[in-house]
UniProtKB/TrEMBL annotation, chain A:
This is ABC transporter permease. Signal peptide: none annotated. GO terms for cellular component: ATP-binding cassette (ABC) transporter complex. GO terms for molecular function: phospholipid transporter activity.
TrEMBL record, chain B:
SUPFAM superfamilies: P-loop containing nucleoside triphosphate hydrolases. This is ATP-binding cassette domain-containing protein. InterPro entries: AAA+_ATPase (IPR003593), ABC_transporter-like_ATP-bd (IPR003439), ABC_transporter-like_CS (IPR017871), P-loop_NTPase (IPR027417). It comes from Hymenobacter cyanobacteriorum. One of its GO terms (molecular function) is ATP hydrolysis activity. PANTHER family: INTERMEMBRANE PHOSPHOLIPID TRANSPORT SYSTEM ATP-BINDING PROTEIN MLAF, PROTEIN TRIGALACTOSYLDIACYLGLYCEROL 3, CHLOROPLASTIC. Residues 2-239 form the ABC transporter domain. PROSITE patterns: ABC_TRANSPORTER_1, ABC_TRANSPORTER_2. It comes from the Bacteria. Keywords: ATP-binding, Nucleotide-binding, Transport. SMART domains: AAA.
Length: 243, 271
């Protein structure tokens, strides 16, 4: 495990020591940002809206005490969404979608000698292939998390009002109660850390794929599982350190 | 000229290259010949820098490549063109973009117009002037090899390496690819190194042949000398080819088959 971590650090160092021209890096990052970010909007929107809706309905189901105001449901949806569900669940979804895509893409390039072709041309393949992916993830994950926050809260609102468990006025009152702006900052810090973990681990797994198609599949699976474990560990560590 | 001196390489305690020394001559098609698992591709990968040899040195026109500074290695790498066994085309790019890619990356001083002209020239040179807009998945194996050659020569390489350029191709396409490599080598005066186990290639373009067996260099010479080589492993290898066996049989029957073989090889037309 220590050897793997050492290889990962060297892999990251190789990526930033001999970078390609800034214009190349910019164009590649924008291309990857479209693949990572824009192409993930639909899945992130669906997941986050339903998570907000389910959270609202389930909190309402559990809050039976008449002394607790209905607006607490809105308050709890907001807190859970901003602090945990939006950054963590979105990142886990993206680990599945983006992580497997990065690992599969790089793994295929490795076994079809496309990475060797870059190296023979004198191009730093990690800088050309991996750095833009990591930068794009660092850029897009926070944006997707912000979108997930908004849609989760909206999903909660729609679920709460359409099912009749609470009034729109109570929900809005709840989501405006005791708002702490730092929680947004905390969620965005989590998004950036998760982005680095998902893109870095997936790129590492894909880049060092050896063998054939079977190993590319194994690299993709490994990338997703390792990324999710890393997200959960980092989630706990960040909560313990920053809250 | 590329000089390889005393190269050794092991994997998990198994020695794959056992002190290989040889010279690849400028302006010639140098063939690395040998059976499967003899270390040809490993030697090629050591030469182009995809693998680091355990021992020995590699020199490109007097500049030491192994263990030299990254700037020197980069400078040499930029003079290298390589045709991979599976072509290694970037599957997200069109044929024209594949050929343009090394120009974009290595020669930023070239204008878009100059790059486009160069791409057109290279594609025309390999006979693919109408395939520029196609994706690699839409073209045949032989066309992929041609695109690979066009991509390799686009930045005006000094050294061309080909890893089994005929693998997976029918005999006629193989001959055409061999001829193309031969023509390009002489046209631009580049040093070409070809890894092969195909005797047809030896007959077609083998101007300087290096025979490897079990990680060692056993013989080197020209295609005219190869038939008279007194190396049992090389004889076994040559006469394992049905083409050469047929020529030998004719020779025995008519006392002229092997002469026809040699004549065919000299004319470049083969048997």
């Amino acid at each position: 495990m220590l050897t793997t971590f050492g290889s990962f650090v060297l892999f990251l160092r190789g990526m930033v020591t001999r970078t390609e021209r800034l214009s190349v890096l910019w164009n590649r990052t924008i291309d990857e940002a479209i693949l990572i970010g824009v192409d993930s909007i639909v899945i992130v929107s669906i997941v986050s809206a339903f998570i907000g809706a389910v959270t609202c309905v389930q909190i309402a189901y559990n809050l039976t005490n008449p002394l607790i105001p209905q607006s607490t449901i809105g308050y709890m949806v907001r807190e859970m969404t901003i602090l945990e569900l939006a950054p963590t669940i979105t990142s886990i979804v993206l680990a599945g979608k983006v992580g497997s895509s990065i690992a599969g893409g790089l793994g295929t390039m490795r076994i079809t000698e496309q990475i060797s072709a870059l190296e023979v041309m004198g191009i730093n393949s990690t800088s050309y292939l991996v750095l833009p992916r990591i930068l794009a993830a660092l850029l897009m994950f926070p944006m997707l998390v912000i979108l997930a926050m908004l849609l989760s809260i909206l999903g909660g609102y729609l679920a709460g009002t359409l099912t009749g468990v609470m009034t729109a006025q109570d929900y809005i009152e709840g989501i405006r109660t005791d708002f702490i702006p730092y929680n947004i900052v905390f969620a965005l810090i989590k998004a950036v850390v998760f982005a680095f973990l998902v893109s870095g681990i997936s790129a590492f797994k894909g880049y060092f794929t050896t063998g054939g198609a079977l190993e590319v599949g194994a690299a993709s699976t490994g990338a997703v599982t390792n990324s999710i474990i890393a997200i959960l560990i980092a989630d706990f560590a960040l909560a313990a350190l920053l809250l | 000229m590329i000089e390889v001196s005393n190269i050794e390489k092991s994997f998990n305690g198994t020695q794959v290259l056992k002190g290989i020394s040889c010279v690849f001559e400028t302006g010639k098609c140098n063939l690395l010949l040998g059976g499967s698992g003899t270390g040809k591709s490993v030697l090629l990968q050591c030469i182009v820098g995809l693998m680091k040899p355990d021992m020995g040195s590699i020199t490109f026109d007097g500049t030491v490549y192994t263990n030299s500074k990254i700037d020197i290695r980069q400078e040499i790498r930029r003079k290298i063109g390589m045709l991979f066994q599976g072509s290694a085309l970037f599957d997200s790019m069109t044929v024209a973009q594949n050929v343009e890619f090394p120009l974009q990356m290595l020669t930023p001083e070239m204008s878009v117009e100059e790059r486009r002209e160069r791409v057109e020239f290279c594609l025309k040179r390999v006979g693919l002037e109408n395939a520029g807009k196609k994706m690699p998945a839409e073209i045949s194996g032989g066309m992929k090899k041609r695109v690979g050659i066009a991509r390799a020569i686009a930045p005006q390489c000094t050294y061309l390496f080909c890893d089994e350029p005929n693998s997976g191709l029918d005999p006629l396409t193989s001959i055409k690819i061999d001829e193309l490599i031969h023509e390009i080598t002489h046209e631009y005066g580049i040093t070409t190194v070809i890894v092969t186990h195909d005797m047809n290639s030896v007959i077609e373009i083998g101007e300087h042949i290096i025979f490897l067996h079990q990680g060692k260099k056993l013989w080197d010479g020209t295609k005219d000398e190869i038939l008279n080589a007194e190396v049992p492993e090389l004889k076994d290898f040559i006469f394992s080819s049905s083409l050469v066996r047929a020529a030998k049989r004719i020779d025995e029957e008519t006392e002229g088959g092997m002469a026809a073989f040699a004549e065919g090889s000299e004319s470049g037309g083969g048997i």
